[in-house]
Structure formats: structure tokens, C-alpha cells
Amino acid sequence: MSKARRFTGWHMTTILVAFFAVVITVNIVMARFALSTFGGTVVENSYIASQHYNEWLARAAAQDRLGWDKSATLDADRHIELAVRSQGKPLDGLATTATLSHPLGQLPARAVHFAPAADGRLISRETVPAGRWRLDLSVRRGADEARYQIDLQ
């Protein structure tokens, strides 16, 4: 007959140390992932941003009333093909301001310039590097303006 081993203080100490080692390790790993993937702040000062909230809502409502429809795709050479239409017809005389930024802020933002192409489309002069990118686009026609954020891959 074998003798049963007793549960001692050393056993309890080992269990507690192992438990807290696992918890601390998981916390360190998760904190590392969070810090390495967070690109920064959304707004510099949330109080100041809140003061402009109603203005932003009014601008969004005005943009919706324009009825403009946009599409942006990447061609085979990774140039952005942009089409802005109203009631299915291409809009002409557009002025654009565009910035291409990495969604996590790990790479510097870069300006994008567009040249007119066939069918009322606009083609970017610059190519888009491989990976995920966000296009912050402002389109103006006379006094009308629309702003878009478009994810590109």
C-alpha cells in the first residue's frame, strides 16, 4: 500500500506562483499587442471636438442632400480610380484634395493628386503601396463639398 502525499504549504505556494505568473504573462502580452497596433489619438482634444459636433452633423446633412455617389478602386498598377456621380451621371469640374494614410498610423501620410480620365473618372498620379490604406478625400464642385474616408487594400 502506498503512502498518500500530503498537501503542504510548498504545494500551495507553487500553485499561487504559477497562477500569477500566467496572469502577469498574459497581461504583458496583451499590453504589448495593444501598444504595437494602436496608431494614436482620434482627436487631439475631445472637448474641442465636441464643440464642433453640431457643425459636423450639419455638414454631413448638406453632403447627403447633394446626392453624390462615389466609388474608388485600385487598378492593376495600384493607381486609385475615382468616380463621383450625381443621379448616375459623372460630375465634371471637380477639385479634389486627398491624403493617403496608414490606418494604424505606422507609416507617414502622403498627398494624392488626381488627373482626369475617360468617362468622368479621376486617376491618381501616385501609386498606392501594398497593404491597407485609408483615403481621406475632399471633393469640391463650386460651393458644394463632400468629404469621404475610403478604405483601400
UniProtKB/TrEMBL annotation:
InterPro entries: FixH, FixH_proteobacterial. It comes from Sphingopyxis terrae subsp. ummariensis. It comes from the Bacteria. This is Nitrogen fixation protein FixH. Pfam families: FixH (PF05751).
